[in-house]
Amino acid sequence: MKSFRSILHLFITFIILLITKSYSQFTSLSPDCSSAVQTFLNSSEFNACFPYNKLSSQFNHVVFRNFTTNEKDIINAEDSICSLPKCSDSLISNFNSTFQSKCSADIAKNSPDALGVSILIYAYSPARDSICFKNSTGGYCLVEIGENIVNNLMPGSSFTNLSSKVLCTDCVKSIANTCLKYIKSHPLPANLALVFGSTTNITDYLNQTCGASFL
Ligand SMILES: *[C@@H]1O[C@H](CO)[C@@H](O)[C@H](O)[C@H]1NC(C)=O
Ligand SMILES: *[C@@H]1O[C@H](CO)[C@@H](O)[C@H](O)[C@H]1NC(C)=O
Ligand SMILES: *[C@@H]1O[C@H](CO)[C@@H](O)[C@H](O)[C@H]1NC(C)=O
Ligand SMILES: *[C@@H]1O[C@H](CO)[C@@H](O)[C@H](O)[C@H]1NC(C)=O
Ligand SMILES: *[C@@H]1O[C@H](CO)[C@@H](O)[C@H](O)[C@H]1NC(C)=O
Ligand SMILES: *[C@@H]1O[C@H](CO)[C@@H](O)[C@H](O)[C@H]1NC(C)=O
Ligand SMILES: *[C@@H]1O[C@H](CO)[C@@H](O)[C@H](O)[C@H]1NC(C)=O
């Protein structure tokens, strides 16, 4: 199931990007673009609503291996992110305007870092919501999902046959609905659609697996 993987991939990419990108790693961007991106990420406005500087220093030496090894790091990152108010749409959209104007050549080239920044801009809002959803016992949903997958995905198997026990939970429901609603009202830009694939599949798949009231 390419599409379920792609939604998970969206979040995992987002979190890993946010917590591992240190300033020096944006070096594949052209100088003007790189400096505009770094200025924003380091700005007090952004850091008041997203702990970018804190995370990038805290996680500078963390190596991401697998979910189980890094569960505590992920929880720490979620705590830092969710303790701040969510960034306003206008802050993100102003950054988008700067990014589009300073980085047009990088965007046209589809450089990996430009794609990474595009993902941050596009996915910020639903990802921030999803990162902070909690379950009925107060644990982070993303962590619950990770634990369920680790406990249910046999070595060598794929997302295709994750059981309904893993998929049809309140946590997956909240995240899936948040994301699908967002994607519906904000169509994926063409360059990101290539990365994440179609969302028709995931809608059909969840509908079939979890029932028509899930979405
Ligand atoms: C980030 O901002 C602080 C001041 O807020 C400044 O001292 C520091 O040099 C900046 N770092 C980079 C990499 O721009
Ligand atoms: C995760 O990493 C740890 C140590 O790095 C290893 O012991 C464990 O088997 C890994 N788990 C999976 C599912 O790969
Ligand atoms: C960023 O700007 C581009 C170009 O104007 C636009 O197509 C895109 O939808 C914007 N992205 C977001 C998340 O606002
Ligand atoms: C809630 O999430 C945590 C992980 O964040 C998990 O360990 C716990 O089992 C979940 N609770 C329920 C009722 O699923
Ligand atoms: C799960 O998926 C894997 C690979 O896609 C397949 O080999 C395996 O037979 C499937 N298991 C079940 C129980 O469907
Ligand atoms: C689902 O995705 C597969 C490959 O990703 C594609 O071949 C298939 O046409 C898609 N189905 C629907 C209903 O979009
Ligand atoms: C879910 O499936 C049912 C029956 O197959 C269909 O009538 C319904 O429109 C589907 N819902 C969505 C949201 O795709």
Automatic annotation (TrEMBL):
Q: Which residues form the DUF7729 domain?
A: 25-214
| Segment forming the signal sequence | 1-24
Q: Which InterPro entries match?
A: DUF7729
Keywords, A to Z, come to: Signal
Q: What is this protein called?
A: DUF7729 domain-containing protein
